[in-house]
Automatic annotation (TrEMBL):
Limits of the FAM192A/Fyv6 N-terminal domain: 15-116
Name of the protein in question: Proteasome activator subunit 3 interacting protein 1
Pfam family, one: FAM192A_Fyv6_N
Biased composition (Basic and acidic residues): 22-39
Upper classification of the organism: Eukaryota, Metazoa, Chordata, Craniata, Vertebrata
Compartments where found: Nucleus
Stretches of the chain forming a coiled coil according to its record: 55-122
GO cellular component: nucleus
Entry annotated with the keyword Coiled coil: yes
InterPro entries per UniProt: FAM192A, FAM192A/Fyv6_N
Length: 130
């Protein structure tokens, strides 16, 4: 018969009586009164009941952390190096830009020489008139 009593104790521990729930609510309300701020409600907010098993809750936390980790390094994985065609194209573009810049500089030097020569001619002609 002792074995049957142990079984009843196990079964009783699975269920919570209404009196125990009321006692817990009173304790929570008392604790709430101690920490409650004036802008908080008078009634203690009810505990959120999660019917999922512990495994499911822990699995969700693990998945969430894994997603955050992947999101953190997502951009890092998106960056890749340039392939040979891309590097050749960029080299060609930089060579063309250098040629354009060189031509522009030569043209500016040519115009400066012409301007200086014109200034010399004008200066000589003005001296002759004096």
């Amino acid at each position: 018969m002792d074995g049957g009593d142990d079984g009843n104790l196990i079964i009783k521990k699975r269920f919570v009586s209404e009196a125990e729930l009321d006692e817990r609510r009173k304790r929570r309300q008392e604790e709430w009164e101690k920490v409650r701020k004036p802008e908080d409600p008078e009634e203690c907010p009810e505990e959120v009941y999660d019917p999922r098993s512990l495994y499911e809750r822990l699995q969700e936390q693990k998945d969430r952390k894994q997603q955050e980790y992947e999101e953190q390094f997502k951009f890092k994985n998106m960056v890749r190096g340039l392939d040979e065609d891309e590097t050749n194209f960029l080299d060609e573009v930089s060579r063309q830009q250098e040629l354009i810049e060189k031509q522009r500089r030569e043209e500016e030097l040519k115009e400066l020489k012409e301007y200086r020569n014109n200034l010399k001619k004008v200066g000589i002609s003005q001296e002759n008139k004096k």
